[in-house]
Design brief:
The protein is mostly helical. It is 57% helix and 0% strand. The two termini are 58 Å apart. Component of the ER membrane protein complex (EMC).
């Protein structure tokens, strides 16, 4: 499924929201330092905003990243024959000095 503008916008809004959550958490910590209160936990609204933002970003990135591949290597290899399994075209060299040893070779 291709990434649409909606998915990109969802990811962008999620990232902005995560940044806002981080700023709110830092602001809350500085408020507690100023008022000399002990830090126990973040307020529930900051926690909920962070969790929702995380899920928005994960949803958007799943569609932007494209199709997932199977983790198991067997799925990719079961369609290949034994001859093509170890076929490495980058190591095939046809222009080598062995041709000069051939009886049909002429310079």
């Amino acid at each position: 499924m291709p990434a649409t503008t909606l998915h990109k916008f969802t990811t962008f809004i999620g990232l902005i929201s995560i940044l806002h959550t981080a700023y709110s958490a830092a602001q809350h910590r500085s408020y507690l330092r100023i008022t000399e209160q002990e830090f126990i936990t973040l307020p529930i609204d900051i926690l909920i905003q962070g969790i929702i933002s995380l899920f928005l970003v994960m949803y958007g990135v799943m569609y932007i990243a494209g199709d997932f591949k199977e983790i198991r290597a067997v799925v990719d290899l079961e369609n290949k024959s034994w001859e093509t399994l170890r076929n490495l075209p980058s190591f095939q060299i046809f222009n080598h000095r062995g041709r000069s040893l051939s009886p049909q070779y002429t310079q």
